Each structure stands twice: as C-alpha cells, then as structure tokens.
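Module 6 notes. Inverse folding takes a fixed backbone as the condition and produces residue identities as the prediction. Think of it as a translation problem where the source language is geometry and the target language is the twenty amino acids. Below is one complete input and output pair. Work through it position by position during the lab.
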C-alpha cells in the first residue's frame, strides 16, 4: 500500500508538492551529506500547529542523537524523553550497529542539552511507564517492522495531549506507511496538511 498515494488522495496537489519537496530535501541531506536531521515537514508541522515555549516531547529510537539535536536546535523544549534500548543490532543494510557506541555519541552530541534530556535505555514498551501524560509530540523512529511500529503507536498515543503530534520516520517503508494509514482510519488522528509523516490527535 502506498502512503504517498493515500496522502495525495487526502491532500491533492498541495499534498503532492509538499511531500515531494520534503522527501527530496531529506534524501539530499541523508544520502549526500550523510546527515540525519528532524524531517523538515515534521518540524514545520510542529511550528504551525503546536509551537509554544517549554514543549515536552518523546523520541523513540535515538541512535547517535542527531535527530534529538535538531529538535533542541530548532524548538523550545522543556524536556525531551529519549527512548532507546541501545542494544546491538543489524540494520536494513546488514551493518552491525553497536549500541554502546551510539549511546556515547548521543550523550556527547547532546552535552549542552543534558539538563533537558531524559535518556530511557529500555525497550519502548518498557519505557512507557517513565513518560508523563499530555506530552506535545511523539516521534517514532524505532524498529520499523510493522508489529513494533503498531505497538509504539498504541502505547504512546495515549501519552499525547489532544492536539499533540505523532510523527513517523521512514514512511517510505511499507510497514510504517501501513501503520500510519491504519492510525488515520481507526484512531482519533488526522493527517497534517503538507506533512506525510505527521498526524494530529483529535480527541
């Protein structure tokens, strides 16, 4: 199932333009510069829909902390809960990812923001008990297999305030796009105009 096609149907030409522009920039940053920042469209969705001082957010899947760094750089955050078990794993390119090294890199990169970071080094399903209610946004970038993304949505959507944003990484994965579409269809979330990887909680 193509999330892009579903999104075009929901948002028409404007959706197509925003989707393709933000995907192009992300591909350019990610593949050419080997950077990994908060996706511009999700950042814009926060600015346009929920921007306020002292926001509280959650990121599931932190790795080396580049996405979290981008959040602190561009948003006024009171607290950011960073959920990552930091176990070793093999990524989709068959590279071995070392959890300890990623954790050290994240702590070093986020050094000046550590007073506003809460690292939770557990699986997302076990970390849920540490997350306060009524957070402003949740960004899901953990295991991209369908069952894991689905579980993260089910658990962490309960922690979002009404009007809060639920963001997804790598919506080009069929497993992720399937969860996004099911969340629109079956839960109290609506798509944000101009942002393929972001939903807003309605009630």
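Target side of the pair, the amino acids:
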């Amino acid at each position: 199932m193509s999330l892009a096609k579903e999104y075009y149907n929901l948002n028409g030409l404007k959706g197509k333009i925003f989707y393709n522009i933000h995907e192009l920039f992300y591909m350019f940053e990610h593949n050419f510069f080997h950077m990994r920042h908060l996706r511009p469209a999700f950042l814009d969705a926060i600015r346009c829909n929920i921007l306020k001082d002292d926001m509280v957010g959650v990121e599931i899947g932190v790795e080396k902390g580049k996405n979290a760094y981008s959040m602190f750089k561009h948003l006024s955050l009171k607290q950011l809960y960073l959920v990552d078990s930091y176990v070793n794993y093999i990524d989709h390119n068959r590279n071995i990812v070392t959890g300890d090294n990623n954790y050290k890199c994240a702590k070093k990169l986020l050094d000046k923001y550590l007073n506003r970071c809460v690292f939770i080094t557990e699986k997302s399903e076990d970390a849920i008990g540490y997350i306060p209610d009524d957070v402003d946004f949740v960004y899901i970038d953990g295991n991209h297999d369908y069952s894991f993304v689905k579980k993260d949505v089910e658990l962490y959507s309960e922690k979002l305030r009404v009007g809060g944003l639920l963001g997804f990484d790598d919506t080009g994965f069929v497993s992720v796009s399937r969860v996004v579409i099911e969340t629109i269809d079956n839960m109290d979330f609506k798509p944000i105009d101009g942002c393929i990887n972001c939903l807003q909680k309605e009630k």
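Reference fact for the lab report: The domain at 3-201 is CATH 3.40.50.150 (Rossmann fold).
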